[in-house]
Amino acid sequence: DGGITQSPKYLFRKEGQNVTLSCEQNLNHDAMYWYRQDPGQGLRLIYYSQIVNDFQKGDIAEGYSVSREKKESFPLTVTSAQKNPTAFYLCASRRVGIYGYTFGSGTRLTVV
Amino acid sequence: SQQGEEDPQALSIQEGENATMNCSYKTSINNLQWYRQNSGRGLVHLILIRSNEREKHSGRLRVTLDTSKKSSSLLITASRAADTASYFCATDAGGTSYGKLTFGQGTILTVHP
Fold it and tell me: What residues of A are in contact with residue B90 (Cβ under 8 Å)?
């Protein structure tokens, strides 16, 4: 079955650490997205990529970095510059054309 | 920036009743989408309506779009306890923002058995 896989499901980060969240899809989708969701809030766009080796900043990119070396993979690194990283992170993908997103099941990141 | 504003923030109904959620947005759009999220899970795409469409149906879901009022509504008919979830509208402004969705804050729907 095709889908989008995020790992790990739960992640704990110490102050000053960088951590990387994995997002892999086997849907052959061109576009991939990272969103952050805070409790009781909607989703805010961190980064997105429409094609391999290209990505753009979203609304809240500061303190985050991404890469898109393969069509299937779009990892997100939460750097120590992100001062309030505790949140639920969602990865999504979409195929070319006017279609909805397919979401992963999310990674819950907590700073300890 | 949050484009969509959902109303109400929370809705509590009995099984079998209809649930209506509203979404307002600020700028012109290419399409508007509705998603569902069960607690602690990823979002699931429900339905997409293009800017030149006024109404769309999918099973027990009915979506309307009024571009003159910059608003949309999602109707779930004959609700079930399994419909309990958060529902989000998301807008695609098109143009240089094509494919980039802006989400509202969501409506929490509780359906009591």
Answer: 43
Chain B nearest C-alpha distance from A63 (Å): 18
DSSP, collapsed to helix, strand or coil, labels residue A27 as coil
Q: Are A31 and B99 an interchain contact pair (Cβ–Cβ within 8 Å)?
A: yes
A103/B105 CB distance under 8 A? no
Residue A22: its H or E element: strand A19-25
pLDDT (0 to 100) of residue B3:
59
User: How many whole angstroms separate alpha carbon B34 and alpha carbon B26?
Assistant: 17
8 A C-beta contact, residue B83 and residue B19: yes
Compute CA distances A44 → A35, B78, B84, whole Å.
5, 32, 23
Please say if the pLDDT value at position A1 is more than 70. no
Give per-residue pLDDT as tens, A42-89: 899 999 999 999 999 999 999 999 999 999 999 999 999 998 999 999
